[in-house]
Amino acid sequence: MCYNCGCEMPDDDMGKGKLSDGGGGLIDEDFKHLAKEWGMSEEETKKNVLELLKKELAKK
Length: 60
Hints:
Layout: H1 2-5, H2 28-38, H3 42-59
């Protein structure tokens, strides 16, 4: 859940479950799932998400 709560523990879903399984926490496993589904590497997926987040935050 690190990616949305700020705990800085990217593998801990804080008991809320993985987002890719219908849970409420965004964890590294979700990025792995997305990368596999889209035929991309996990690193490529995270870089794309980071770039989009930077653009979206710059709009604010």
